[in-house]
Amino acid sequence: MKKILVIGSLNLDMTVQVDHTPVVGETILSNRMDMNAGGKGANQACALGKLGADVTMLGAVGRDMYADIQLDSLNTAGVNTTRIIVKEDVSTGIALITVNKEGDNSIIVVSGANATLSKKDIDDNLDVIKESDIVIFQLEVPLETVCYAAGIAKKLGKMVILDPAPVPKDFPEELYRYVDIIKPNETELGMLTGIDNTEEHLEEAVACLKEKGVKDVIVTLGEKGVYMVDKATGAERIPAIKVQAVDTTAAGDSFTAALAIMLAEGKSLREAVIFANHVSSIVVTRKGAQSSIPTLKEVMQYIELNEVAV
Question: For a 10 Å CB count at each end of the chain, is N or C smaller?
Fold first, then answer.
């Protein structure tokens, strides 16, 4: 089995259920708060573990109870956590999440230990990059660290997948050249390209990213499906699977993970996207981040139930 490495963030998610998302100056009440392991990197690693991948997580946490919750979750999912670095004098990252009754979320991230992941940390773990076949990144850790590690992975001939969230104000152009597959959502695509109303200009926006050096582009459009462009089949829009969403928190991360494991198994990009579409459609029907991610058995049962061949 091919090895997958996730380099990125680990957070503790503090999720509050609300009737509606508050506007500026508004105070509202909630009757529930949950604490769960999260962070885009850890979510992706957890999803990969639950889907049966050989996956290692490389990131940073503090020496606190939040880290214990995170490590327990990843270990239970079958993730190799031996490359998670414990940092002194800094807390584990925290995400403050509000989820409204429609299932839409707003997130504030306190970076904590994630902000300390350094080039030296990458150098200290070069062996695990060399051993991996696919390396996945997000942007909740320092950009210079992501660029440095992605450059190394590219030079070593690894497949590099980037989930470009959160999109920084000044996106480093060099990073595009290291990326094989980039997976923005509609909002992120607009921020990366400067193109307004990207849904009506998908072809133009995607072409912009490819001109910067990215090989393949996948744009997730929520209930409007997925727009993908790869060198083998060209452009295609894959429809969304209609479900009743209750929480979208880890949907994008699970999509990325599902995409990676299918590619690791030799599936085409289109086949990988279809599988990922099903995984994320399960996630949005459940509350929480890592707790919402299905196992491979659950996904296959779901696909069989919907009579979909992957």
Answer: N
Q: What is the pLDDT of residue 309?
A: 47
On whether the CB atoms of residues 178 and 154 are closer than 8 A, the answer is: yes
Rounded Cα distance, 126 and 135, in Å: 12
Residue 125 has a pLDDT of 98
Q: What pTM was estimated for this model as a whole?
A: 0.91
What's the 3-state SS for the chain?
A: CCEEEEECCCEEEEEEECCCCCCCCCCCCCCCEEEEEECHHHHHHHHHHHCCCEEEEEEEEECCHHHHHHHHHHHHHCCECCCEEEECCCCCEEEEEEECCCCCEEEEEECHHHHHCCHHHHHCCHHHHHHCCEEEECCCCCHHHHHHHHHHHHHCCCEEEECCCCCCCCCCHHHHHHCCEECCEHHHHHHHHCCCCHHHHHHHHHHHHHHCCCCEEEEECHHHCEEEEECCCEEEEECCCCCCCCCCCCHHHHHHHHHHHHHHCCCCHHHHHHHHHHHHHHHCCCCCCHHHCCCHHHHHHHHHHCCCCC
CA angle 184, 185, 189 (to 5 degrees): 65
User: By the 8 A CB rule, do 219 and 206 touch?
Assistant: yes
Q: pLDDT under 70 in the chain at which residues?
A: 288, 307-310
Active site residues: 253
